[in-house]
Amino acid sequence: MSTNGQSRANIRPGLTVDIVLKKDQPTGRLTRGVVKDILTNSPNHPHGIKVRLQSGDVGRVKAVVPEGG
Questions:
Q1: Which sign does the torsion angle of CA 69, 31, 21, 55 carry?
Q2: N or C: which end of the chain has fewer CB within 10 A?
């Protein structure tokens, strides 16, 4: 089980992830959703890979939710 949202290799469309939205960065509030698009081009990012969820929300991945989680 990997919860590393800093490595692009761990993120793919269809995965359920917890992200922090730009507006929630001060509080660290997480939003859960399914990845639609990966927006970060670099293989790693210290603050998390930026993604767009199927809901349209954009934020940085803090954790990948385990299958069935």
A1: positive
A2: N
Instruction: In whole angstroms, give the CA distance from residue 42 to residue 62.
Output: 16
- How many Cα atoms are found within 13 Å in the side-chain-facing hemisphere of 47? 10
Q: What angle do CA 54, 64, 59 make, to 5 degrees?
A: 50
DSSP string, the chain: -----SBGGG--TT-EEEEEEGGGTTTT-EEEEEEEEE---SSB-TT--EEEETTS-EEEEEEEPPTT-
The whole-angstrom separation of Cα 61 and Cα 46 is: 11
Q: What are the tens digits of pLDDT across the range 11-44?
A: 999 999 999 999 999 999 999 999 999 999 999 9
